[in-house]
Amino acid sequence: MTGLLIRGATLLGETREDIRIRGGRIAATGRLTPELDERVIDADGLVALPGLVDLHTHLREPGGEASETVLTGTRAAAAGGFTAVFAMANTSPVADTAGVVEQVHALGLQHGYATVRPIGAVTVGLEGERLSEIGAMARSRASVRVFSDDGRCVHDALLMRRALEYVATFDGVIAQHAQEPRLTEGAQMNEGALSGELGLAGWPAVAEESIIARDVLLAQHTGARLHVCHLSTAGSVEVIRWAKARGIAVTAEVTPHHLLLTEDLARGYDARFKVNPPLRRDDDVRALREALADGTIDIVATDHAPHPAEAKECTWAEAAFGMVGLESAVPVLQTTMIETGMLGWEDLARVMSSAPAAIGRLDGYADPLTEGAPANVTLVDPAARRTWSTDDLRGRSRNTPYTGVELAGTIVATVHGGVATVLDGDLRPADEVVAAWAGLREDARG
Amino acid sequence: MKHLLSTRDLDRATAVSILDIAEDMARTADREVRKLPTLRGKTVVNLFFEDSTRTRLSFESAAKRLSADVITFSAKGSSVSKGESLKDTAQTLQAMGADAIVVRHHGSGAAHLLAHAGWIDAHVLNAGDGTHEHPTQALLDAFTMRQRRYGADSRERDLAGMRVVIVGDVVHSRVARSNVWLLSTLGAEVHLVAPRTLLPSGVETWPVTVHEHLEPALALGPDVVMMLRIQQERMHAAFFPSGREYAREWGLTAERFALLGPDTMVMHPGPMNRGLEISSAAADSSASTVLAQVTNGVFIRMAVLYLLVAGSSEERA
């Protein structure tokens, strides 16, 4: 079978259409008749979205293969409806050279579940001292456009200024993990009455907000683009809103977990709920949802952070920060934003596909689901509901915070560049995906 | 009661009954044969990830007086320092037949985790977890206050009407947290005194009155002044400028001690920094309950072990 026909999908939740996919592209939309060499996907009742783009994924390879690899991470991504992920730089070795980013990029191409765009480290070894070879990474086959010392805030003001200026030279963007390091030494959870009671060191909102405030002013001063990772507080929203009103070139992201979960989950000392930035208060969750709805926050990114069981089966302070989030992203967004009426499906497509692609300078996502566009398509069944469990995960690690939580919506199919990576709600086998890509390349040559 | 993890979970009746059982235990100390057969055949493990000789000895002595078999496991120099996890250690101890695990750990929530993670089904007794709680310390403090106040007439009483001033490094103190919850449950009026740097966030939601300076709190005529231990290294993290300044502002100096009423108790969970948070004049005075606290610690730990491991009150001899 060389083509796919998606029948009766509701495009972006608006009109019912068929989608024909040929040669890796959308060949036609409208009312279409199946052809003999097509695999037909019955999409009655399903919402067709553009393939989703995650600007903040930890694939862990190289160095962290015990928790995730490019293969397992992109399989998790495909299962979550993603067709492209930006792989964070905090690997071992760090993604601070052209060699490492090209390797990660090539692994993505080899497996074919999703496009992997590596994020380059801003500074050598994430040490916050010297700039890494940003130009070499930008000009490499991985064409890096997003640079971040994620987890390690670029806190030195001069270094941040230079990084913003230098990265702008290559049309890149700094994705800042906003965390004032001195204010958060040993920090374990949101600072407040609960941290005081539990005896866990607090991570105060001001440590995030003060860095964002400084960075938007630096972005204004330098005229460079700034992207702020995982906003977690109402105060951060206010700063971003102010900056955007001033015309500063800043974009902001929020994670699904910060849209749903609050600090109260720390009460049982279950380290699955330990994440950085930490889960905050109800008021913060509300402010983040409103900001995503009104466009103050541009995108949703998962900060998918896989960890082996032993990194979470220990005392809170000893446990690693982070939770997996690729598979659950759309269900959490449907639950928190769609079903509350705060976003429509078209908005969801913007915040989870076209906008992150634009920030990361990823081509092919500007006019999705239209004739001639690369065939990146995700089908969601919005009527499905399920109680989340670790069986719903497809990556290598099990550290989901949603076990036992009822979430709406499920990913039924994912098509990456014309290749089906998920059908009938489950992953296609690795050899089939690889063979399909080989077939496409052959067609393109022939 | 399956576990003792926090004083926050204790209601007044349970707290008073623990104190009353400790009274029973105290009476046995005067007998010729001090040992009770209550926990014969039971195994109590002391699992100490932090050095704390006095707490460990107190628990060991309590368990032995109840005739339990006692295993003490210190993390230093053991498999734990070679990277074994809390989970593996706990499961190993369970496999050796531990009926109760007394755990002291540097991480807040460690006891809670042992009790609720599903790794083991032994009783868990929190002997201090990070900067969270130290419930038996608070119970022995309450016991000591009640005993000083009511003597032989202590039984069934709570601490209603008592005014307790707790001074010092509240933010890092598990003793302060456990005392705040327990003393307020028992009806005492609790005051905290510390510079803002040493007060936990959200302290305004606690059932206490907060003072930034010591004199106004002492002027209230407290029944108890409890001085918390100050860690010398705190001054390097800018919590206060120097030990000298701390002692001058928040220490129970000889001058401040002299202003206290004749019946005011001076308490300290130990070990003391003489000359820093407490002067020798206060520590060595008859107002000081420091040694009584140590003695009572054994009775309280006997009472708690008895309640957890031996179970129902009918068995009480």
Primary descriptors:
heterodimer, A: 446 residues, alpha/beta, 9-stranded mixed beta sheet, 5-stranded parallel beta sheet, B: 317 residues, Rossmann fold, 2 domains, 4-stranded parallel beta sheet, 11 helices, 9 strands, 37% helix, 14% strand, disordered C terminus
- The CATH topology annotation of the largest domain in chain B reads as Rossmann fold
CATH class of the largest domain in chain B: Alpha Beta
In this structure, how is the largest beta sheet of chain B organized?
A: 5 strands, parallel
Low-confidence stretches of chain A: none
Contiguous uncertain segments of 5+ residues of chain B: 312-317
Structural class per helix/strand content of chain A? alpha/beta
Termini separation of chain A: 17 Å
Largest interface: A-B, 23 and 27 residues
Number of domains of chain B: 2
Q: What's the CATH superfamily of the largest domain in chain B, by name?
A: Aspartate/ornithine carbamoyltransferase
Q: What is the overall pLDDT average of chain B?
A: 93
Distance between the termini of chain B: 19 Å
Shape of chain B: globular
Q: What portion of the residues of chain A fall into strands of 2 or more residues?
A: 15-25%
Show the helix and strand layout.
The complex is a heterodimer of chains A (446) and B (317).
Chain A: E1 3-11, E2 15-22, E3 25-30, E4 38-42, E5 47-50, E6 52-57, H1 70-79, E7 82-87, H2 98-111, E8 115-118, H3 134-139, E9 146-147, H4 157-169, E10 173-176, E11 189-190, H5 193-198, E12 202-203, H6 205-222, E13 226-228, H7 234-245, E14 250-254, H8 256-260, H9 282-294, E15 299-300, H10 329-338, H11 345-359, E16 377-387, E17 406-416, E18 419-423, E19 426-427, H12 430-445
Chain B: H1 12-28, E1 43-48, H2 53-65, E2 69-74, H3 86-95, E3 100-105, H4 110-116, E4 123-129, H5 135-150, E5 163-167, H6 174-185, E6 189-193, E7 209-211, H7 214-218, E8 224-227, H8 243-250, H9 254-258, E9 265-267, H10 280-283, H11 290-310
Parallel strand pairs in B: 1-2, 1-3, 3-4, 5-6, 5-8, 6-7, 8-9
Helix pairs in contact in B: 1-5, 1-11, 2-11, 5-6, 5-11
